[in-house]
Amino acid sequence: MTTPDPAADTPGDAMTSPSSAEQTSALETLGRSSGPASLILASLAEGAKHGYALTKDIESFAGVRLAPGTLYEALSRLEAHGMIEALESHDRRRPYRLTAIGATALSAYLENQRKVAEVGLRRLAGSWAAT
Amino acid sequence: MNTPPQPEGSHQDPGAAHDPAITRLLLWYPQSWRVRYGEEFAELLAAERAEQGPSLRRNVNVATIGLRTRLAGAGLAGHPLDDAAAGHAGLAVIAACIAAAVLAGSAMWSQLAIGLQWSVPHSHGVTQAVDLMSAALLVLVLLTALAAAPVAWTAVAAVVRGQGCEFRRPAAFMATGLVVVMIGGRHFENGWPGTGGHLLAHQGIVPGGIAAFAWASTMWITSYWAHPAALAEFPAAQLAWMLLSPVASGFVVTGAVQLLRRVRLSPRAFRYQTRVANLAWTGLAAFLGGSLWWFASGPAGYAGPFRAGAIDHAALGVVTVAVIVGALAVRHARAAARSGFRRALASPRP
Q1: Is residue B1 assigned to a domain?
Q2: Total domains, chain B
Q3: What domains, with CATH codes, occur in chain A?
Q4: How confident is the model over B162-219, as pLDDT tens digits?
Q5: Contact between A80 and B81 using a beta-carbon 8 Å cutoff
Q6: Which of A65, A69, A102, B10 could form a disulfide with A83 if both were Cys (CB 3.0 to 4.6 A apart)?
Q7: What is the pTM of this model?
Q8: CB B46 within 8 A of CB B18
């Protein structure tokens, strides 16, 4: 596993460009891969990882073990959309890191998820707290 | 996007250092995908296998997604890695579907035309079905010409600029195949069994000359192959033509498909092609409708000249598959044109 390049684009830099709505839809254009893609981006937000490290990390924080085909289908689409990029590798395992576009897309996606979670929890608290 | 350079020779056999089972699993994916992701994917599979042992569920997951990646690369499923390449592949698939349907359909239609030369159909439905099939075939031929024009223009322009080396082989394939089909078709149409038939009111809009050429060009699509004794009675020249003509037709189709996969159309030309492809699919569906109409027109137990035989059932199957696959290809070619295709087209081809 490698660490992120300090000189690379940081999520903070990228937050200022495209609107959240645009980037949310960017992640959702990945179709059936958007779920695994959000998990991959969340894992890479910590630092660059190769395929197996991604699987283990996602399993540890989300309780989901992505099957190899599913993982690489999402990885290839994320790379094609410029949300992640491959790093040089000295062995056969190639690490990936988050790009500015990916960080912005993840941020917008998670913000949206947070809003949905907050509304859901608030309504649950209001309607079901007494029961 | 930064893609690290591949170590020399590493892309030749991505799964070579792994278990043969892993190497076999990688074969579900297209070669272009294996070249890019094969080594690291094999590494992940080996790690998963070492940790959890062999797993049928994992194998099914890899096979399913590998197959889907292949379909996406051929413009038949969503989310390909390269929208532009998948869009062009989609057009090539549509061209192949139309070619298959026109060949199978022409064989069916030309046999019906022979029947119409000699006898009155048992039902008006047959005449109407043949009229619809004739109109659909005419539309498909016209649309093929409309679709070929911008492709030919782009290829010729590239050749004039000195960048058309990759078009030479497909163009040679097409030219060779077309010359053989035209010369052979024109020669053998003289033996058309419809010649000498009567001018009947029920012949509809079937032109005898075109029917004769279609019959001669598709003479090899016949159930005689299942009856070698009857086939042995054929003149040697006709047998030779029945062996040569499918090869020549294959040359035309292969050349057209290769050309469509290699040519890089402008976004405007690609949009035009997807519209023509959409219309062509409608023509295919109309031809299928006409064929089904004819099949449905025969009363139970009917054994006259307009009876649908085994080869007609096979041809109907080919047309049906062409309509289904063509619909998928049209849908994904249009999606490719919408999603990021313009940007991909604007960038220089590697």
Answers
A1: no
A2: 2
A3: 15-125 (1.10.10.10)
A4: 877 888 888 899 999 999 999 999 999 888 777 666 665 555 556 778 888 999 999 9
A5: yes
A6: A102
A7: 0.68
A8: yes
- For the segment B71-82, what is each residue's pLDDT rounded down to a tens digit? 887 777 766 666
User: Which residue is closest to B83 within chain A, CA to CA?
Assistant: A80
Band (pLDDT 50/70/90 cuts) for residue A25 is: low
B3-21: per-residue pLDDT in tens?
444 433 344 444 445 688 8
Token reading at A43: 């894992």
CA-closest candidate to residue B337, choices B273, B257, B258, B256: B273
Q: How far apart are CA B290 and CA B292, in angstroms?
A: 5
Interface test with B, best of A94, A96, A97, A101 (most B CBs within 10 A): A94
| R_g (Cα) of chain B, nearest Å | 24
Contact B1 A33 (CB under 8 A): no
Predicted local distance difference test score (pLDDT) of residue B203:
57
Task: Let me know whether B41 and B111 are in one domain.
Answer: no
Identify all chain A residues contacting B13, using CB atoms and an 8 Å cutoff: none
Report how far residue B197's alpha carbon sits from residue B176's, in angstroms, rounded to the nearest whole number. Answer: 34
**Whether the predicted interface score ipTM is above 0.95:** no
DSSP state of B347: S
